[in-house]
Amino acid sequence: MAIDTIHSEAQLRYLKGLSPFVRQFTTRTWRAAEFPAANMLSDARSVARIYAATVSDVDVVRLLDPSTVESMTVVQTDKTPMYGLPSGLHIPADRSFYMSLGFMRSCPPMPMVGPGSFGHPGSGGSIGFADPDAGVGFGYVTNLWSFRDDSRAANLAKAVRSCLG
Q1: Do 49 and 17 share a structural domain?
Q2: What distance, in Å, lies between the first and last C-alpha atoms of the chain?
Q3: Is the pLDDT reported for residue 104 higher than 80?
Q4: Are 97 and 26 within one domain?
Q5: Beta-lactamase-related domain spans which residues (predicted)?
């Protein structure tokens, strides 16, 4: 039995033992609900496509004007303390997330394609983002939540950066 299979079986056993609150994430009611900024269910192609359409034409459709993208991606948080933590609480710079209006920006713990990239991670290692300079969208989803340090999305983003030069 492969280590990933063992890990997946362990995840399933773990999820089955979780509270009713967490188990409800797999119900039809939960999936049909609309929670702003949470519970998006999608496939990687659709995530990449919608992000791409924010920064370039996709089938002759561009969702946002470049000036809107520029305005909404201005970093709103201090890049040193995470989410404006009070002084005295220090998060190392390599662990700080940069937030714009509704999106995370490319930063040390979540590198995307370039410094202008914006997007957001999801549960279990999923992520979607766009890069206005490269005109690309990126989507990565997982079949199961990862309860360990999972570098697959970061490795794929690194490969995209490499391909774009």
Answers
A1: no
A2: 39
A3: yes
A4: no
A5: 29-158
